[in-house]
């Protein structure tokens, strides 16, 4: 119909798991047929768990209510990825120790890493908006690591960032729009931190 954009959708970012099913014996096959949605359809491979349609409905209702109220939301594709936060925390610690040999531990813990990644930067690089191969690093390398001096970048962007001079003009390197965006996020985080 020629519509290529402008339609809001709800979708799952969960990766499908390909599970090989074991063959059923005669009794199991008969029992499975009793609960099948269609003849000769194995009920245990139905693609939807019971609460999922309701969860998608609630997500749609929330999105629409916020849109009608003029309080647009930017949904996160995934949250509470504990193993990812642990890995990013470990990589940030290694990066900080490389910058300063006297560093034993960093001021941010694993929960802070999750907060920075998900809430402040929405799991996207501040430079390219990419969500692939991301990590955390200091924004202003001459200043100490803190919630107002850590950003999300891709690994290749971090490697280039680390090679900049300590006093590099970040607006000149990345553009004023990127710097303004980062500083706005830091100001918002500072406000939130004051309320804690």
List the helices and strands and how they pair.
Layout: H1 26-34, H2 52-68, H3 82-99, H4 110-120, E1 134-138, E2 150-154, H5 155-162, H6 170-174, H7 176-195
Antiparallel strand pairs: 1-2
Helix pairs in contact: 3-4
Number of domains: 2
For the sheet with most strands, the description reads: 2 strands, antiparallel
Proportion of beta-strand residues: 5-15%
Integer-rounded radius of gyration:
23 Å
Number of helices: 7
Morphology: extended
Number of strands: 2
State the low-pLDDT regions, or none.
Answer: none
Q: Structural class from helices and strands?
A: mainly alpha
What number is the mean pLDDT? 83
Written description of the protein model:
By secondary structure, this protein is mainly alpha-helical. The protein has two domains: 26-68, no CATH class; 82-195, no CATH class. Helix content is 45%, strand content 5%. It has seven helices and two strands; from the N terminus they run H-H-H-H-E-E-H-H-H. It has helices spanning 26-34, 52-68, 82-99, 110-120, 155-162, 170-174, 176-195, and strands spanning 134-138, 150-154. The chain has a two-stranded antiparallel sheet with strand order 1-2.
In short:
This protein is mainly α and 196 residues long.
